[in-house]
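Exercise 7 asks you to align residues with tokens for two separate proteins.
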Amino acid sequence: MPFVIDIDPVAVTLLGVPVRWYGLIVVVAASAAIWLARREGRRRGVPPQVAWDAAIWVGAAALAGGRLLYVLQNELGSLAAHPAHIAMVWMGGLSFYGGLIGALVALVVFSRRRGLPLLVVFDVAAPAAAAGQAIGHLGCLVGGDSYGIATDLPWAVIYRNPGAMAPLGVPLHPTQAYEAVLLALLFAGLWLGRERLGRIGDGAVAAAYLFGLATIRFGLFFLRDEPAVLVGLKTAQLIGLGIGALAVVLFIVARQARATSTPLTWEASRP
């Protein structure tokens, strides 16, 4: 029998501003990711303050990138009439890959400004990102965002609340739950295997994360209710192919960097 979700996406209203469950869960996800990044950073010799500063950069860039790509994909036509809508994140609409691309760009810029080895920074961030994304998808499940196609499987979900983003009364694949579980498994694999991956070279953990992420999302988007745009593939799947290719390149770079490695020093105090 399908699971029924009848939860108001708005958890509480404060001073007239609706606070959604999605936003609260994202705060929990970000907090967990920052804690993991700081812990792994200490193991890799990254000063705690550097990890915190990087988290601020990544958070802001991920939010901006996620919103920008979502608007370009889904709401570009409405911007002429309502230009300010692009900044209204609280109204929903964030692209997963837009956030990922924004975060990667932020890490590149941050590493260059601080004089930090980029591959090490990527490796520190990768497991934390997987954990944060796994938790964040639970927010999508509550609100009906990123819903799947109709199914008659016994573990389907049916949304009843009018505020949900998913169609009401239709048994759907709980793709948000699928992705949360698979990302949690990816995090576990990265966290438990990070020392072994590290022996391949700096950047190998990040490469494994990107490849795993691209593989998970490529497969799950066959169950997502979105139109195909090219050769039967959806936009996120095409982006995923690019992310997967980037992961392969990063893995090759990691192996080559290991073969020609030289001692690295931190210059965390550089502005």
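Second protein for Exercise 7:
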Amino acid sequence: MFDIKIDDARYWKSCVDSIVNLIDEGTFNITKEGINLKALDPFSISMVSFNIPNKAFSKYEVEKSVSVGLNLENLGKILSSSRQGESLVMKESTGKLLLEFIGPHSKRRYKLPIIEVKKGGEKELNIEFESIVEVKSDSLREILKDASLLSKHVGFSTDKESFKVIAKGDAGELEEEHVNNADAVKKMKVTKPSSVSFDLDYLERMISACPAGTTMTLSIKSEDPIKVDYNIGDAQVSYFLAPYMES
């Protein structure tokens, strides 16, 4: 049994958006320390790892650890109904998840069925990355928008001095370079130059929930999956995305 309350229902929606952007179903592991989830997308191209500590909630009562499998698309739709000034209470209720939105003068309740979610391959990858790039979220969105004008995939290239973005398609080519310790790239650590390409749509979905004005971290190694990290308040989100392979 659990009884959890978050004062800002819209904040919880932002957290869940970071998961829903990639996967349709997932299992939240609710422990005394907090809530976490790890899941692969339906095509096993990417993985999301989400963790939020108990301190993020105004009320957090968990008798024992429990796993709650949900259709995340339906959860996202319900959370989209959250209104300004509403808090959210989440409880287990006879095999269902009870969501209660509490406003100044009203309450409304939804119940979602708890489902069995197929598991497999959710273990976080252990990669010795060659390049760590800290980049402003707004800047990366603009960079990927530039790349999408020409291609459906995008290449990242690093050296000691700069972070390059490369896009090539039938319509033309783009090479965008950003130097270290500047407006877009806040910090870089490169032990070895890296070069690798990724599916642009997946990357855009991964960063779409990142709050404006924050910094995210790109961990890169040639021919290996990229890792993307950022925070949504107290919540931590990490993604892995497999490299794009020319067909």
